[in-house]
Each structure stands twice: as structure tokens, then as C-alpha cells.
């Protein structure tokens, strides 16, 4: 079963707007939450990541908000640009996994219109 | 960020042949690498965890004899799809893990598109 649930499945936003993608996890303790950006035909690229002792992290136009009690975290893309059009995956790493495996969300396809 | 090189980026092969995909960490040593499979418009599906000097650990439902993994050095892991069939056509992606657990990060290769005719 998917331990990290991601929504929405797809998102269309106008240039300059804010893209918001949400992820939620259940039952399992995680200690690291990265977001990856993937363009068609390419591998995922690490965008930004957060640990549970921090409620927010910002890097340029990208911000992660983390709500530990609600077991939710979200990615905000400010001032969205056409070049941001891609698929975004949230992920979470189980605390007890010795190999550092990641549990991925289903992905969100973001389209930024000019 | 760290660089992971994956080769080839695209391969076409005949049914019944074997295909080898290489994954290299170019500027760091990776004791652990991961192999994923991705279908169109879907998420990444972990196939196996590759550890240098030991046997790979496969996820449930992944055929070990079909997908052979060798992690011969701290910078190279290979995935061999043996006796490939059209249903093996997919996008295969590797990742390499850096650093100790508390600070480790997974960096991904560019992926290999396999088409089996």
C-alpha cells in the first residue's frame, strides 16, 4: 500500500501563480522528506528537502511546509514559471530503514501556462 | 549536487537478448545504490537495493533471475535484464546514496529507456 499520499494528480497554474502540492503519510515514522522534480524522459532531480524538526524550509521560489502533528507536508512553488512544468514527487524515508529507502508519492504533473 | 551517470540512455533490443545498464557515481562513493522502474505517468517503483560487495536485496515481486544486479565497486552498479521480453520495456532509473544515514541523500541518474521488440 502507498504510505505517502500525494495530491493533486495534476495541476495547471498561470505564470506568476503559486503551485501547491500536498503530501500526507500514515502510521510510519519518517525522518527525512525530499521533493524531486522530473522532466519527461529524465531522472528525478532533488529539489528541496526537510527534516521533521523544522516546520518550514525555503530555497528560492520553492518552500516546504511541514506539519508533524497532522503528518502532512507540502511544496509551494512561488511565481511559477513555464520552466517549472514538470512532474513533482514527494518522498519520505522511514526512520527504521537501514538502507535509506524512500517511499514516493504518486506524483503531480504541473503545467504552467504562459 | 552529486552526479550520477547512467548509461545507455536508450536501448532497443530484440526479444530474448540481454541488456546491461550501468550506473556510476562520478564524484562520490556510494555503498548503496537503488534501481527503480517507472511506467508512463506513474511513480517510481523500487526494484532492488544494491550494496557494494554483497548480494542485492530485491523488492517483493521482482524476479532476481530476470533482473541481475552487480555492485562491484563503490562507484558502479549494473542492472542486467536477462532474456528481455516486450513486457520488460520500461524506463529504468538508478540512484546512489551519499553519506552516512543521518545526512544521506539519494541522487538519481538520467534513466534508461528500454524498448524490447
Compute the CA-based radius of gyration of chain B: 14 Å
Low-confidence stretches of chain A: none
Count of β-strands of chain A: 11
Percent helix of chain B: under 10%
- Give the termini separation of chain B: 37 Å
Task: Give an overview of the whole structure.
The complex is a heterodimer of chains A (114) and B (117). Helix content of chain A is 0%, strand content 56%. With 114 residues, chain A is an all-beta fold. In chain A, the strands form two sheets. In chain A, strands 2, 4, 5, 9, 10 and 11 form a six-stranded mixed beta sheet that branches. A five-stranded antiparallel beta sheet of chain A has the order 1-3-8-7-6, with no helix packed on it. Chain A starts with a strand and ends with a strand. The mean pLDDT of chain A is 93. The chains are: A mainly beta (114), B mainly beta (117). The interface between A and B is medium-sized, with 20 and 27 residues.
Distinctive features:
heterodimer; A: 114 residues; mainly beta; 6-stranded mixed sheet; 5-stranded antiparallel sheet; globular; B: 117 residues; 7-stranded mixed sheet; 4-stranded antiparallel sheet; 11 strands; 52% strand
Amino acid at each position: 500500500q502507498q504510505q505517502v499520499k500525494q495530491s493533486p494528480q495534476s495541476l495547471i497554474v498561470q505564470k506568476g501563480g503559486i503551485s501547491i502540492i500536498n503530501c500526507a503519510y500514515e502510521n510510519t515514522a519518517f525522518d527525512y522528506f525530499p521533493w524531486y522534480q522530473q522532466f519527461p524522459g529524465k531522472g528525478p532531480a532533488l529539489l528541496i528537502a526537510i527534516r521533521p524538526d523544522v516546520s518550514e524550509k525555503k530555497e528560492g521560489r520553492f518552500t516546504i511546509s511541514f506539519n508533524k502533528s497532522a503528518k502532512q507536508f507540502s511544496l509551494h512553488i512561488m511565481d511559477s514559471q513555464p520552466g517549472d512544468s514538470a512532474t513533482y514527487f514527494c518522498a519520505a524515508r522511514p526512520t527504521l530503514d537501514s538502507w535509506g529507502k524512500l517511499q514516493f508519492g504518486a506524483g503531480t504533473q504541473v503545467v504552467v501556462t504562459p | 549536487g552529486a552526479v550520477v551517470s547512467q548509461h545507455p540512455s536508450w536501448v532497443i533490443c530484440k526479444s530474448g537478448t540481454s541488456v546491461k545498464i550501468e550506473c556510476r557515481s562520478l564524484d562520490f562513493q556510494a555503498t548503496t545504490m537503488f534501481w527503480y522502474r517507472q511506467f508512463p505517468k506513474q511513480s517510481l517503483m523500487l526494484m532492488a537495493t544494491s550494496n557494494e560487495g554483497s548480494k542485492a536485496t530485491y523488492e517483493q515481486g521482482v524476479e532476481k533471475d530476470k533482473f541481475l544486479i552487480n555492485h562491484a565497486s563503490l562507484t558502479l552498479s549494473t542492472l542486467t535484464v536477462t532474456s528481455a521480453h516486450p513486457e520488460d520495456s520500461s524506463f529504468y532509473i538508478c540512484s546512489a546514496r551519499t553519506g552516512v544515514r543521518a545526512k544521506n541523500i539519494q541522487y538519481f541518474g538520467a534513466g534508461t529507456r528500454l524498448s524490447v521488440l
